Amino acid sequence: PQVKVAAIVLEGNNFTKDYVVLKELEFERGDTVTPAKMDESIARLQRTGFFSTVEIRTLEEKTNVANRTVIVRLTERDPGILTLGAGATSERIFTLRGYAGLAYRNWRGTGRGISLRVEGNYNIAQVKYLESKIILGYLEPYLFDTRVRGRINLSRSKAVTDYDLRQITEVNQITYSIEKDFTSHILGIYEIYGLATIKQTGIDATYILPSTNLDIVTTGPSIDLDFRDSPFNPTSGTFTRLSAEYSSPHFPADSLGSTRTVNYVRATASFTHYLKLSDSSVVFANNLQGGYLENLSTEPDGGVPYDIKGFILGGRSTVRGFESGTSDVFPNKTDLGSEQYKLTTSARMFLFKSELRFPIYGNFAGATFYDGGYVSIENLTLVDKYRDSVGLGLRYNTPVGPLNLEWAWKLDRKDGEAENRFHLSIGTF
After folding, report:
1. Whole-angstrom Cα distance, residue 184 to residue 177?
2. What distance lies between CA 349 and its chain's CA centroid?
3. Which helix (H) or strand (E) holds 223?
4. Cβ proximity of 266 and 245 under 8 Å
5. Percentage above 70 pLDDT, the chain
6. C-alpha angle with apex 357: 356 to 360, nearest 5 degrees?
């Protein structure tokens, strides 16, 4: 018979308010309930992070009773979380990293959350400057009694953005955004208003460029379609991300917009496919990315600050074998013809990453990979628009992603460039 919900009984939510649980269910009293709706409700409740176990069943299951009582049985988690971590990367020979996070995910059982995270990097080999980032966030889970979530994030960061120039970039940022899980696989986010106050200066007196100050205000949507079997060590499925942002001195008002010279539109897309070969543990992973950036400013000195918003490839997350933050990237300062290049036209980017992952022994695995990237800028002649590399990787799989040791060789090395690069990191695409 067609099963309808006669009543809903909640068990185990001694701390979490009833309305929080009911808001995440895909059914209410009087609705037809199906196994698909039950599975989606379980996924939504698990994704909140409030519960360690979730079970949904009907009291009259395996009977012909049509009007049934649905039982939602829960086991709650401690809402307070403290996380600590430390590690190292091969960036600039050797860089130490650490972080600490404190979060309270279910304030007074209402689903509201607040979090604080502090990160630090220190390059002990060359730069010897403490990079830092502090992020404070607040989550309002049910705006206007809907499933739409509201977020406010405040952050402050200092990072070395050009190792050759010994340049640091300080960013103070606030963002207001809304988000909604349309299904357990589809997440939509809209950044209503984001303001980044950016200051670029030098680490010491050797810095030769004038200090710059910019306000960049952004707004725009993004959407994630996640059909992976695991977010940390995926072996099958796909992940797609589409995003766009707009910045203008007049949005949302002249007094609240970007710096007078900054006006642009930027869009990016990424698609990753994971294929498990036959019945083995060998995984073939491929990632495609594309981007478009256009300057909209009509000011005589207007343009998009390319080192902040432009497409610059090189590093572990884009094209391995090239080191980010140095002249090893492309396009670099020589290609652009300026230390502080402003884009006055448009730019395009394409990136392809392909990787064959295979088990070695226990949690140890290996990989072979190819990375290739393309960047073009209208009215600017780049000597080489496409750069690529090949490499080998050794990995140790952990529950939060693999620890990677990777060696990458440039396929079109230029004079003065290193033939290869070593990358040490956690996580993968």
Report:
1. 20
2. 18
3. strand 212-226
4. yes
5. 100
6. 135
Distances from the Cα of 411 to the Cαs of 265, 335, 387, 399, 428, in angstroms?
33, 19, 8, 34, 22
- List the structure tokens of 307: 């080192």
Q: Mark residue 76 as left, alpha or beta (left: phi above 0; alpha: psi -120 to 50; beta: remaining).
A: beta
Dump the DSSP string for 355-404: EEEEEEETTEEEEEEEEEEEEEETTB--S-SEEEEEEEEEEE--TT--EE
Residue type for position 78: D
Q: Is the pLDDT of residue 301 over 90?
A: yes
| Helix or strand (DSSP H, E) at 335 | helix 333-336
Q: Are 424 and 89 in contact (CB under 8 A)?
A: yes
Task: Report how far residue 113's alpha carbon sits from residue 246's, in angstroms, rounded to the nearest whole number.
Answer: 28
What is the pLDDT at residue 423? 87
Tokens standing for residue 394: 């050794």
pTM, full prediction: 0.90
CB atoms within 10 A of CB 98: 14
Q: Which helix (H) or strand (E) holds 102?
A: strand 95-107
Q: 222: which 2 tokens?
A: 């993004």
413 compared with 136, residue with greater pLDDT: 136
